[in-house]
Specification:
The complex is a heterodimer. By secondary structure, chain A is mainly α. Chain A contains eleven helices and four strands. In chain A, helix 1 packs antiparallel against helix 8, helix 3 packs across helix 8 and helix 5 runs antiparallel to helix 8. Chain A starts with a helix and ends in a 14-residue tail after the last helix. The relative contact order of chain A is 0.20. In chain B, strand 14 and strand 15 form a beta hairpin. The longest helix of chain B is centred in the N-terminal third of the chain and has 25 residues. Classes of the chains: A mainly alpha, B alpha/beta.
């Protein structure tokens, strides 16, 4: 492997890992507060991509009903990001309100809530299939693609944007969770759900806040994914969502740093296994490595074992 | 009160029974086992559209004449979700529950191979219009196809790459979890290495269905200094592969196979696919005669030009109806009729379709057909480049 190919693959892995990291961050936000594995998260990511598709094509005037004025691409881009994140956050909060909160109120075990989350995911996938049909959609080129070639290493501006955005999101979330009052409340809820309301912390508001953050993250990941891989389909979130969940567990479920690192670990293993070995063995070897990490550190890299209270 | 309800019910049941049997005498039921949802929904849509168009045309003329009786056509569309297991289930349902005379589809080999297994064991005629993998019909007297085979298509592509594109080294990227791409990739490799020597396929890379990122494989392919990239994938993966290849600095030609031939390809791929070549069954630009007439009426009815799947489905239904007519008369006994149709189909001497002439020799279900090399022109249309016959 020459140096150019090595650097090329590092860039590939950074981009691919970014998507896992962004989705895994969403899993970990929710898990960190509710200790709930929100299996619908991958499909919220899909919803984000579709919402972005409809908003951007509408703003670009690709429908019969057109916006009254034509907007420059930059404005379309900003509006698409903001509106998509807002709408998807609404979807996330609705799911919480309709599917998870009633169970929580009735004191159902977390296992049931996880199963509910799985069902919500399937409903989102098949609802999309029923509503919009199975045909693929081509995502418009929101960010004009520029291909750079430096010393045999080829990369696009998209690749760089994806990697930088992921890094910024990570720093932002880490600050929110560790340095703000809201973050402190989030951590407190996961620590002791019974005592926290007694301290005057509005639990439901904090949980809604968590879902807003988690879902807008999924939306962000969805837009970036759709821009990078511009073929949309109803099941696009399923496999990526599952793999991102695995990377969240490897990194340490419930920890922001864990999701970030875990996502990149999975991205790097997948890309480099495919580079060094015949690509047929990619998933076999990649997940073999992850299994090894898990047996060495069952709680993940940043995870801390919790003792169940008697 | 109770007897009245019973009486009404009895009348209803009797009515249903009567109407059923009256209709059954003059209706030919044909099943469609097609990919209406899943990975390649456009393929299912094209099949259904071609079916509806042909049905309307024949029924509006009073139906299909078999012997001295006219039959109305009735088509039953079953979705196989582009999944192997659902294809088997759909075939079973059509054979035993819908009790169809014969089945058209599945289209893709991944579905057609298990679907063919079910039809063959249940002694029902199946024609797959689009499946090019040898396993679909191999050793199955009840299964036929409407197109050429991959052992033919592979060498056609290899020869084209060598002669027209002047390639000495080739790279292949394919989905190892799907029968069609896997089979064709191997046939291509074998043929290309036969011409250009062992090791001339310098990269033979794989991925699995649903993968979206091919950067690791494509980085290898770009570094392998191949002259051409061959990727026998379906229309939902081709745009991603082609775009990512270009992003990673691939500037040489990209070669595809008949799975590229979908009306949806250019909507998803845009400029990136222009200038690529692929082998297929017919070309829209430059069509003449019956093919031209088919293309025009399809476009008028559905708003876009029919792809190879639509044309092959049209031909396969035509072929089936031709065989039914050759079977002389239908008895109404499903088992006997299915056998009669199979025997008539296996010995079709000549059927002129819009994708070429078809004939069966009674031994296999594979017609001898020519392949067409198509170039995607700067307007994004599939343009006839060259015809290759066996």
């Amino acid at each position: 492997m020459t140096l150019a190919i090595f650097i090329q693959n590092i860039l590939n892995a950074l981009q691919w890992g970014s998507f896992y990291a962004l989705i895994a961050l969403g899993y970990n936000m929710v898990y960190g507060v509710l200790l709930l594995i929100n299996f619908a998260h991958g499909d919220v990511f899909m919803v984000g991509a579709y919402v972005a598709f409809f908003i951007s094509t509408f703003l670009l005037g690709m429908y019969a009903i057109q916006p009254a004025w034509s907007l420059p691409l930059g404005v379309v881009l900003v509006l698409t990001f903001l509106l998509t994140m807002a709408i998807t956050a609404g979807v996330g909060v609705t799911i919480e309100r309709v599917a998870y909160r009633p169970l929580r109120r009735k004191g159902a075990s977390r296992l049931y809530v996880v199963i509910t989350a799985l069902m919500v995911g399937l409903i989102l996938e098949n609802g999309n299939l029923a509503l919009l049909g199975a045909s693929r959609r081509s995502f418009p080129e929101l960010i004009p693609k520029v291909i750079y070639n430096v010393e045999g290493v080829s990369f696009t501006n998209l690749k760089i944007i994806v990697i930088i955005v992921t890094l910024l999101v990570f720093i932002f979330l880490q600050r929110v969770v560790m340095k703000t009052k809201w973050g402190m409340a989030m951590r407190a809820i996961s620590y002791d759900r019974v005592a926290v309301p007694l301290m005057g912390i509005p639990v439901d508001a904090i949980i809604i806040m968590t879902f807003v953050l988690g879902s807008s993250l999924a939306a962000l990941a969805g837009i970036l994914f759709a821009v990078s891989y511009p073929v949309l389909e109803p099941y696009m979130g399923a496999l990526v969502g599952w793999k991102a969940f695995i990377s969240a567990v490897v990194g340490g479920i419930g920890d922001i740093r864990g999701a970030f690192i875990g996502g990149f670990i999975l991205g790097f293993t997948e890309i480099f296994v495919a580079t060094i070995f015949p690509s047929t063995y990619r998933d076999l070897i990649a997940f073999g490595i992850l299994l090894l990490i898990m047996t060495l550190r069952p709680t993940g890299i940043f995870g801390v074992a919790r003792r169940t209270k008697v | 009160m109770r007897s009245r309800v019973l009486g009404t019910l009895a009348v209803l049941v009797l009515g249903l029974f009567l109407s059923g049997s009256v209709w059954a005498a003059d209706v030919i039921k044909i099943g469609f086992n097609i990919e209406l949802t899943g990975d390649i929904p456009k393929v299912g849509e094209a099949s259904k559209y071609a079916g509806e168009m042909l049905k309307e045309r024949i029924n509006s003329k009073g139906g299909l004449k078999v012997g001295n009786k006219s039959y109305k056509l009735e088509f039953v569309y079953q979705d196989n979700e582009a999944k192997a297991e659902s294809a088997a289930a759909a075939a079973t349902k059509l054979v035993s529950q819908d009790r169809v005379l014969a089945i058209i589809g599945p289209q893709a080999s991944k579905q057609a191979i298990p679907g063919g297994e079910v039809c063959d064991t249940n002694e029902t005629v199946m024609i797959s219009p689009w499946s090019t993998n040898p396993k679909t019909t191999g050793g199955r007297p009840w299964v036929f196809r409407g197109c050429f085979l991959d052992p033919f298509q592979g060498p056609v592509l290899a020869k084209f790459a060598t002669e027209e594109l002047k390639a000495k080294r080739a790279a292949v990227l394919y989905d190892i979890a799907s029968d069609y791409p896997k089979g064709l990739a191997e046939f291509f490799k074998e043929a290309f290495e036969k011409i250009n020597g062992k090791g001339s396929v310098v990269a033979f890379e794989t991925f699995t269905t649903k993968d979206r990122d091919f950067s690791a494989q494509l980085t290898k392919i770009v570094a392998s200094k191949a002259d051409v990239l061959m990727t026998p994938q379906y229309y939902d993966e081709v745009p991603l592969i082609v775009k990512q290849a270009h992003e990673l600095g691939w500037k040489k030609p990209i070669l595809g196979s008949d799975s590229w031939d979908s009306a949806e390809l250019m909507n998803l791929c845009g400029n990136d696919c222009k200038g690529s070549f692929f082998s297929t069954h017919y070309a829209v630009v430059g069509a003449k005669g019956a093919a031209k007439e088919f293309i025009d009426s399809y476009k008028k009815k559905y708003g876009y030009e029919p792809d190879a799947v639509a044309a092959l489905t049209w031909d396969s239904i035509g072929l089936l109806l031709h065989a039914i007519q050759n079977a002389k008369n239908l008895t109404g006994d499903l088992k006997k009729d299915r056998k009669a149709v199979r025997d008539a189909l296996a010995t079709v001497k000549k059927f002129d379709g819009i994708t070429g002439t078809m004939a069966f020799d009674g031994k296999t279900g594979d017609p001898n057909k020519c392949a067409v090399m198509v170039k995607i022109n700067p307007e994004g249309k599939f343009e006839f480049f060259k015809s290759v016959c066996p």
